[in-house]
Amino acid sequence: MCAQIKLVTTPARSALMSSIRSKNTKPEMRVRKALHRLGYRFRLHQPDLPGRPDIVLPKYRTIFEVKGCFWHNHACPGCSIPKTNKTYWLPKLIGNQRRDRSNERALRRLGWSVFAIWECKLHRYSDQALEHFLHSRLESTEGLR
């Protein structure tokens, strides 16, 4: 059975896109739950740090950014640039990447360890593997102190 392509009108597309969340996404919630199960405590979307990072662990001076492959233009097989309205999407997605790099540099200059967790990779992790990944990243930053 072929997938049908459904054309969406501009107002409908606008309503659809405005409903997409930037905070408390399912991937972000999964990472937060794993950290909590491991006993780590953290702050969310801390406004006094560059880029308002997703998950901040002040005790470890570590930040986890949970990145959606589409919005951050990840080079994974599941991510593609929309075929319509490329004059809008290309600059937007490239701008997102530039802002990500700038924020990460600023955070590192302030002494933070920054780890990106990509949505596509997160789907591959079991809960146990995710916990191991997170714990190992936090252990590696402890050795720096």
SSE layout and pairing:
Elements: H1 10-18, H2 26-37, E1 43-44, E2 55-57, E3 62-67, H3 86-109, E4 113-118, H4 119-122, H5 127-142
Parallel strand pairs: 3-4
Antiparallel strand pairs: 1-2, 2-3
- Main beta sheet strand tally, sense and closure: 4 strands, mixed
Series of secondary-structure elements, N-terminal to C-terminal:
HHEEEHEHH
CATH level-3 fold name: Endonuclease, Chain A
Named at the architecture level, the CATH assignment is 3-Layer(aba) Sandwich
| Strand count | 4
Total helices: the number is: 5
Helix content: 40-55%
The gross shape turns out to be: globular
User: Strand pairing plus helix content: what structural class?
Assistant: alpha+beta
CATH superfamily: VSR Endonuclease
Number of domains: 1
In terms of per-residue confidence, which ranges show pLDDT below 50 for 5 or more consecutive residues?
A: 1-5
CATH C-level label: Alpha Beta
As laid out across the biggest beta sheet, the strand order is 1-2-3-4
What is the CA-based Rg, rounded? 17 Å
How much is the average pLDDT?
86
Spatial separation of the terminal alpha carbons: 57 Å
Strand content: 5-15%
General description of the model:
By secondary structure, the chain is an alpha+beta fold. It has a single domain, classed as VSR Endonuclease (Endonuclease, Chain A). Helix content is 45%, strand content 12%. It has five helices and four strands, in the order ααβββαβαα. The chain has helices at 10-18, 26-37, 86-109, 119-122, 127-142, and strands at residues 43-44, 55-57, 62-67, 113-118. A four-stranded mixed sheet has the order 1-2-3-4, with helices on both faces. β2 (55-57) and β3 form a beta hairpin. α2 packs across α5 (127-142).
